[in-house]
């Protein structure tokens, strides 16, 4: 009996793997840690291959599998694909290859935006690949009559965040060009995990009234549900550890990762 308890404890204390095309997924990691602070996390940013959003679906799928294989070698107990683009391209295939691994993906939080603002104008910001993938197109077809959904491709915003450029003159100008012509809107859905880091600038441009929503909190709740179902929640009372890795060998990427994890973006 004691040996069984020891094994169960060993299972629950295994880390959770989180990955993104770069450092943007740290916005999701922050939500995971906020809800489940006793868990250990391994975050892998594939900045050497970023952005995913301008690549083909096949490319993104192959890159995603390469990262997941690295994380599996770290004996992870669950996986969070903290990237809307990678989720669109590869989540089904990852679940098929690892059927016993709890997997959480990200998708634009269109449904809650429509539930709050039915029949109103809602902007959906995302990468080009996310917007053209079947997963989002199904969302678009399902909800288009329930609200006026406006697709806003914003591929360059990923690059700004990857450089740690969160409030520059150039970023303000770029987002003003994208968002100012859309006003008024009732909500802005951030359909890329890089985008929440630009939330203060987005807020400045769209004004105080629109609801700005992203999928991070929902992903955290889904992870909690899956871990509870699989009896894998860590019951320790100490704060969990977070380790950062990146495919870009420049140590600045790890420094940026830690900086973004500590940043206040609400």
From TrEMBL:
Substrate binds at residues 20-21, 52-53, 84-85, 193-194. It catalyses: L-glutamate = D-glutamate. GO terms for biological process: cell wall organization; peptidoglycan biosynthetic process; regulation of cell shape. It holds the Pfam family Asp_Glu_race. The active site is at residues 83, 192. Its EC number is 5.1.1.3. Pathway: Cell wall biogenesis; peptidoglycan biosynthesis. SUPFAM superfamilies: Aspartate/glutamate racemase. InterPro entries: Asp/Glu/hydantoin_racemase, Asp/Glu_race, Asp/Glu_racemase_AS_1, Glu_race. One of its GO terms (molecular function) is identical protein binding. Keywords: Cell shape, Cell wall biogenesis/degradation, Isomerase, Peptidoglycan synthesis. Belongs to the aspartate/glutamate racemases family. Provides the (R)-glutamate required for cell wall biosynthesis. This is Glutamate racemase.
